[in-house]
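Tutorial sheet, problem 5. The two components below are modelled jointly, 232 residues in total.
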Amino acid sequence: DAKTTQPPSMDCAEGRAANLPCNHSTISGNEYVYWYRQIHSQGPQYIIHGLKNNETNEMASLIITEDRKSSTLILPHATLRDTAVYYCIVRVWTPRAAGNKLTFGGGTRVLVKP
Amino acid sequence: DTEVTQTPKHLVMGMTNKKSLKCEQHMGHRAMYWYKQKAKKPPELMFVYSYEKLSINESVPSRFSPECPNSSLLNLHLHALQPEDSALYLCASSQKRGQGFTTNEKLFFGSGTQLSVL
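Model answer (structure tokens):
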């Protein structure tokens, strides 16, 4: 699976959009981009994933560049409860994989401030 | 019910003790996972079970022994651990249809067991 690079930390203001970048310059054509987050004292929580097209759900939006070498997770209106470590993960889809082997990188520690 | 329940939440054990961690889900998921997470580090995959059979072992030392007695339950048996094994142990599950894993198989994680080995 391709390696990802994320800034170690970032702050954002409550009520504003939070834009979390992720670099995956070695991504290959069949690799998906996943985002999970981990709030303190909890297990990771799935946010969103995509392959080529931009994706949106009730939690966030995922913008993937045309060359797929980077992506941005957007939290449209950050709240204090969005304070967490956000992980960008690239994973290849193999139909006969033995397991959904998610490999977590360093992540970005996001602090939402009032 | 979209919960993965892990017990106990905290565990302190000596290096000669034998203990077990338990994980339970009732979402009908047929894949279950154990991850280990050291403080301020990302989770690291240990084991994957698929249809109650061990499918991935990430070269984990034999002092960690996983068990999947049925489709809802996953155990991690601990014996002769070292202080460096102190960590948060996370269980996860995902729905699995047929062979292989699809892109929509999101992992649902429990809150973990915080283990301290003295």
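Marking note: The interface with chain B takes residues 32, 36, 38, 41-46, 49, 51, 87, 93-107 of chain A (CB under 8 Å). Full credit if you identified this.
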